[in-house]
Amino acid sequence: MPIPTPNLYPDFNIIRLSHVVFGVSDLAKSRHFYVDTLGLQVTDEDDNRIYLRAMEERGHHCLVLEKSDSATIKSLSFKVFDEGELDKAHDWFKKNGHPVEWVERPYQGRTLRTTDCFDVPIELYFKMDRLAPIHQQYALYKGVKPLRIDHFNLFSPDVDEAVAFYNQLGFRVTEYTEDEESGKLWAAWTHRKGGVHDMAFTNGRGPRLHHTAFWVPTPLNIIDLCDLMATTGYVDNIERGPGRHGISNAFFLYILDPDGHRIEIYCSDYQTVDPDLEAIKWDLKDPQRQTLWGAAAPRSWFEHGSEFENLDPRDAQLNATPIVAP
Amino acid sequence: MPIPTPNLYPDFNIIRLSHVVFGVSDLAKSRHFYVDTLGLQVTDEDDNRIYLRAMEERGHHCLVLEKSDSATIKSLSFKVFDEGELDKAHDWFKKNGHPVEWVERPYQGRTLRTTDCFDVPIELYFKMDRLAPIHQQYALYKGVKPLRIDHFNLFSPDVDEAVAFYNQLGFRVTEYTEDEESGKLWAAWTHRKGGVHDMAFTNGRGPRLHHTAFWVPTPLNIIDLCDLMATTGYVDNIERGPGRHGISNAFFLYILDPDGHRIEIYCSDYQTVDPDLEAIKWDLKDPQRQTLWGAAAPRSWFEHGSEFENLDPRDAQLNATPIVAP
Amino acid sequence: MPIPTPNLYPDFNIIRLSHVVFGVSDLAKSRHFYVDTLGLQVTDEDDNRIYLRAMEERGHHCLVLEKSDSATIKSLSFKVFDEGELDKAHDWFKKNGHPVEWVERPYQGRTLRTTDCFDVPIELYFKMDRLAPIHQQYALYKGVKPLRIDHFNLFSPDVDEAVAFYNQLGFRVTEYTEDEESGKLWAAWTHRKGGVHDMAFTNGRGPRLHHTAFWVPTPLNIIDLCDLMATTGYVDNIERGPGRHGISNAFFLYILDPDGHRIEIYCSDYQTVDPDLEAIKWDLKDPQRQTLWGAAAPRSWFEHGSEFENLDPRDAQLNATPIVAP
Amino acid sequence: MPIPTPNLYPDFNIIRLSHVVFGVSDLAKSRHFYVDTLGLQVTDEDDNRIYLRAMEERGHHCLVLEKSDSATIKSLSFKVFDEGELDKAHDWFKKNGHPVEWVERPYQGRTLRTTDCFDVPIELYFKMDRLAPIHQQYALYKGVKPLRIDHFNLFSPDVDEAVAFYNQLGFRVTEYTEDEESGKLWAAWTHRKGGVHDMAFTNGRGPRLHHTAFWVPTPLNIIDLCDLMATTGYVDNIERGPGRHGISNAFFLYILDPDGHRIEIYCSDYQTVDPDLEAIKWDLKDPQRQTLWGAAAPRSWFEHGSEFENLDPRDAQLNATPIVAP
Ligand SMILES: [Ca+2]
Ligand SMILES: [Fe+2]
Ligand SMILES: [Fe+2]
Ligand SMILES: [Fe+2]
Ligand SMILES: [Fe+2]
């Protein structure tokens, strides 16, 4: 059986993905991409870091750009339900053999740094500085009108193992792709917050971050972004789409930032709060799995990803081949 | 202080609103409205009842039309997190002096019938027949392309009392309107599922059901519905909108069904899963509260509602007057 | 018979409306409205005038803001098919007893100033400075993303007379409203360029300019403008809409500039190039005439307009009453 | 110089493209595609032909499906400005050595059948049965909500020659692609009705019909059609797109009907009524020429087309190669 029984009562309560720290080589270039083009809002910046939030978020940041020699990912962060959950998390990770450390993070309360099953650096916190709402300051909206961070997608050397691990943390599978021959998972989408996913896993050399997704109001905002990027020097940064995913039924666009970190612009998936929601299974060879309209993803989409800082990826166990654009 | 501290650990776990039973005088007329015009899908029907679901729902029904001598509301229903939560709910309601009864409902498992603080008939269940997904059967989409039931809004004779009651059940306030003079709540929006609301309360003769809302993909679907209703004999059933709410920031349209039950078509609110989300306060006299663009709601919107079966409404305690269209 | 036989072979060839000169009391305030909020592009400006074009236009200006003691309209301008048509127009207006004058206009070639049947100042030209296309410079798009000027609508003291006059100039009626009792026209829409209208006439104290309309890509841009105006101090400048017109079937919004000049934001009408297109007749008492969805226009919409410079309006002949919002 | 001076005073006045007759192998299959899926309206049908119109058209047909042994194109038709223009056209074609014939066509008045410079069968008429408007019967809208026929695109063995010929007929070039090496035209877009084109020409084995385009309200209707086709057995009929054209700036989708006739769904180009509109030049090697967002067209798009009945195509003179998807 490819997917585990959902763990409805995990030992601690992660409520959602929260933010990610990207190492970037040139803050000015990244700022032009994320602020002037995508339309994220700067909440703080100095010579080393830019903190960003999307339009409906009240937490201080959903994306941190950190000047860095390597374009690596520093950590993936998650918000827990209250302060006490942090302690429960600390104990769980420690008990299960993961390194645990309380770290200082600007604009955040107590923050627990640990790792997942593949040594991916993850951080958990409850308190982050709360900012005044700006979602009705329409003069601030620009670019793709990003509303909120939606999910992470990771290349995983063993998707079954990733799903088993995050299932312990209460991430519930909503859709998945199975390799018919081996019976192994090729990809899976798992959620905490009631959408199709907070975390997805794709078979491939990993762990690496495949992409970080932002939610936008409608497909027309995605078309607007294509027009804007195509006429402001970013035409080569449009990697795939726009289109409708088979999996998740969402409307998507994949773009690459100046350092090659992949961003998905995403809207229109569905509500998944029911604990008895049945996961939807897709066959790896179904051409509508990736794009409902039939267009295959380009090879780069299956091969390129961002490494985590100081963490060497390894090849995937599963050698099954998806449909790649010719 | 007008709103209570959120109860993050209620005695039992309601995950979301689920469905409503409308008494209707003519099933054929109601079917023409809900199925042929709005685009809800029939999941079962006989001479007495039509069961409907929206496009992304897998539960058997979100709306039940029941042939009835009176156009009253039979019950409001909620889904709980698992079977055990039903027993906890049973005990809680009983302990707190509400009538409790296990009732039989087609397509549902054990169902607890009880009442809220104003004797509104509410029903809780965990299990409902699960149907195959149809959200990617695009040939079935029509009308306004309804995706899911979103919320109930009730006229309440005392909004402070309603909020206090539902707060015990874990409904968290996201936005509210205060009457500056009395310091009392005039309206409040409260959620369980992570959107702006599952349940809202509006000051007025009550308890009565003000409206039931359905979520749709984009504002353009709402424009499409206006065009359709305006040219198929339903022009007088368009009561208010379309427009953008100040409260919730959602795009809305209010329409009346053949029996006068009010339906809101709704999209574009925001995610509220953070337990530390700060509620947004509005002044009753703010003209942008109702409609961000300044248009006042018509008098009927403040006065007309659907009564619950065998339940006489009473006048509201608070006599404050909202802004009404001239 | 209320509308004349179309004159398919007028004595000279006007191809389309072109631009209008608004007297404004405060150029900075007007600039904030038209440039920063609506999104028109400045093509020239000095202490007395701001020249503007919309995104797909290559002519130098579609709107000129002129600092003025009175918020009056200085002229309505039209482009003719070639230089020779100007001379034909000159002779025609002179022969028909209208004052004719060759005037100097910046960025334009020879310009004929004359009047219509109610002494409205109109100007005709063929040559205007042509600018490089900007319609694919998507970084310039903002506000409502105005694409082009679409039409003028005038209050006319006698719509039959206005239609008879413009019919001589080849303006063809596409839709019209008749007062059933008197058999007189209450309003008419007439075109040269192949859309529903270049010039419309509404019964009322006149001549006055009722509004100037700009074409935008989709209804969603109009919703965006409502959101923007509502949150940047312009909520009281939103007069009517958004909605679907019965007449023209277009999606619309009416707003007022800082001097009270009315602007319509408009999209989605239909192609009318067929010379044998049958005009569509509407009854003045049809509630869907104004707004297909049934909402009546407010009283201000029937009463307020911009006077032309040095031209006193007179009361309308026809006293029929349209449906006005209560 | 690659494009000729526009002929502003052609010998007769064609106002717009009108309709096309497709030979189809199976009327039922074609009906399912054009009526049930795209949403065109049947205006007449029998065992041999189906006549169709789009939602805002009042002429009887814009597309005729004719049962046929070969999936060829029977004729391209154009509407002239009045009856007298037909006689002028007759004389012009005869004088210039083209075969001329008055033919009987159902629902049309006098119809002149002749040929263009490559023997493509073209038909001209003024009168066609006019039908009652249906553009406000919103219950009839379905599929992609086609509003009107927009343009033909032909493979031409010599685009310079095609442009020279149609320029004599008053078709004005709005945009064009030049092969830098040879200085010859690789493609051109020419119009009569005030949009980017009625007729476009693409270098290639020809004459063949590359595609017929229909205008729809917004890009979202095109997304809706993709979703519908992808889930009703037509996923393989989606050939290219959706995307934004560089040339014309329109939003597009290319699909293939059951016989392989290519249809473009199209919206959002710009107004071109100015006689002094400057044509926009593109380089054949500009990757944003085809798709502003950079995606190359597939090979089939450059190679596949529909032949005209009894007319053998020949290879193109120009051997320049466009950018083709790998
Ligand atoms: Ca849209
Ligand atoms: Fe994703
Ligand atoms: Fe509501
Ligand atoms: Fe207008
Ligand atoms: Fe085309």
CATH class of the largest domain in chain A: Alpha Beta
- Please count the beta strands of chain A (DSSP E, at least 2 residues each): 18
Give the overall pLDDT of chain A as a whole number: 97
What oligomeric state do the depicted chains represent?
homotetramer
Give a written overview of the molecule.
- Four copies of one chain form a homotetramer.
- Chain A has 326 residues and is α+β, with helices and mostly antiparallel strands.
- Chain A folds into two domains: 14-131, 2,3-Dihydroxybiphenyl 1,2-Dioxygenase, domain 1 (Roll), CATH 3.10.180.10; 144-305, 2,3-Dihydroxybiphenyl 1,2-Dioxygenase, domain 1 (Roll), CATH 3.10.180.10.
- Chain A has five helices and 18 strands.
- In chain A, strands 9, 10, 11, 12, 13, 14, 15, 16, 17 and 18 form a ten-stranded mixed beta sheet that branches. In chain A, strands 2-3-4-1-5-8-7-6 form an eight-stranded mixed beta sheet, with helices on one face.
- In chain A, a hairpin with a 7-residue loop joins strand 6 (101-103) and strand 7 (111-115).
- The relative contact order of chain A is 0.17.
- The mean pLDDT of chain A is 97.
- Chains B and C meet through helix 4 and strand 14 of B and helix 4 and strand 14 of C.
- Bound molecules: calcium ion (CA) and fe (ii) ion (4 copies).
- Residues 151, 153, 200, 211, 213, 264 of chain B line the site of one fe (ii) ion.
